[in-house]
What does this fold into?
Amino acid sequence: MEKAIPFQYQFSSVECYFQSSLASLDELAGNAKVIILTDENLYRIYKEDIQAYPIITISPGEETKQQPTADQVISELLKIGANRDDLLVGFGGGVVTDLAGYVASIYKRGMRLGLIPTSLLAMVDAAIGGKNGVNHGLYKNMAGTINQPSFIIFNIDYLKSLPHEEWVNGFAEIIKHACIGDEAMFQLLEEHEIAYWKSHPDHLAALIERNARFKLEVTVADEKERGIRKWLNFGHTIGHSIENRYSLPHGKAISIGMMAAAKLSVALEGLDSQFPDRLKKLLLTYELPVHFAADHNSLIELMAADKKMTSKGIDFVLLKAPGNPTIRNISLKELTEFLKIYFQ
Ligand SMILES: NC(=O)c1ccc[n+]([C@@H]2O[C@H](COP(=O)([O-])OP(=O)(O)OC[C@H]3O[C@@H](n4cnc5c(N)ncnc54)[C@H](O)[C@@H]3O)[C@@H](O)[C@H]2O)c1
It folds into this structure.
């Protein structure tokens, strides 16, 4: 098996494998029992690869990411007789990796966790950094923990079965990384489109590793989100509200949120006024939406419940320049004024 690349968090190391697959699980588990958590779509496609292990399946989709599903998974783990030394492996997109991380951190006060992200979004974002959790009604990720997996296995072969729409979603987070920390990648993305990455697996693998390492490094430096990890919320404050209120896919909602944040950055942080147009062109190239006729009052209502909201206002990620983010506390009043005009 390939040599792991370790990323050292405060209390644990996450071993990353950039060229392995499910086949490595037995070696990684040692004497522990491996239990797979996946969704019905993945189960249908990869049943033969995972049938040697006990499998817990959940329904696919964001609606599943709720506390009752976590309770069901716990019941299944009890039926299987899982112990805290056993290994729960989340094999799927971000919904599965978020749930696996959450359940693994609370089941018997914590069991071993491994992640095998299968969607582009999970490979470059959701499986990394230890954040997990479930939504509460319309409110995103309201219950959860920060719990690092023992290992993450990245394998682009799984993307062969990923629906095109989900490629689009994944590219929203890649473009976010380019905006906040990698202007050279922004330019690289401008030179291509999704079809190019699909037909050049070596370049795609390098792009995924570049993005995974970016998120790994940011979260290693600031695991508890006291400083630079907040940058990763670029586009997410408005994006999450749109995602929940209008049931838009995560990537599409974030894309709309990034455009709004770029416009706000021009007004408040002196970002080059040409940049929003450049970002718009890039997002459209990657088939992402750039605007949405949202009701600003309901967005504000959802943002008021955002975890980042304080009595003073909300910590909003803006750009001073491409690749140069900053955090600015914006009052709810100021935000309401902006959204009223932006989403009219
Ligand atoms: N924890 C974090 O830091 C973090 C960061 C970003 C996003 N997220 C969360 O991730 C979730 C979104 O992740 P997602 O877009 O992967 O969603 P998802 O898990 O719902 O996957 C999207 C769809 O693709 C299917 N799928 C996944 N991999 C596949 C494959 N290889 N072949 C065929 N079908 C496949 C799934 O069954 C599902 O229908 C959201 O809940 C979001 O909040 C978490």
